[in-house]
Specification:
It is a single chain. This protein is about 65% helix and about 0% strand. With about 80 residues, the chain is an all-alpha fold. The protein has a domain of about 55 residues. The two termini are about 40 Å apart. About 0% of the residues are buried. The model has no long low-confidence stretch (mean pLDDT about 90).
């Protein structure tokens, strides 16, 4: 579970607050959870998808590496050089 350590202040009208409290009660959620979910869905979801897409593009752009002909020999050599 993420640790929330940043705080913001949002001012709402009485009607907005009352409606939000009602919705939170219907969903059995706290107000803070509702606000975080709304922010994530409405504003941050697209940015997260762009970061993932860029990471996938970078992975797909990596050069091909041939597989070793004999994996056991390769692993033995790899293990020898791993700790030097």
């Amino acid at each position: 579970m993420p640790k929330y350590n940043k705080k913001i202040q949002v001012l709402l009208t009485d009607d907005q607050f009352r409606d939000l409290v009602e919705i939170a009660e219907q969903h059995k959620k706290k107000l803070g959870v509702m606000v975080r979910e709304a922010i994530e869905e409405y504003h941050l979801k697209e940015a997260k998808q762009r970061r993932i897409s860029k990471a996938v593009d970078r992975l797909l752009a990596l050069p091909e590496v041939p597989a070793p002909e004999n994996y056991q020999e390769w692993e033995t050599e790899y293990q020898k050089g791993k700790y030097y």
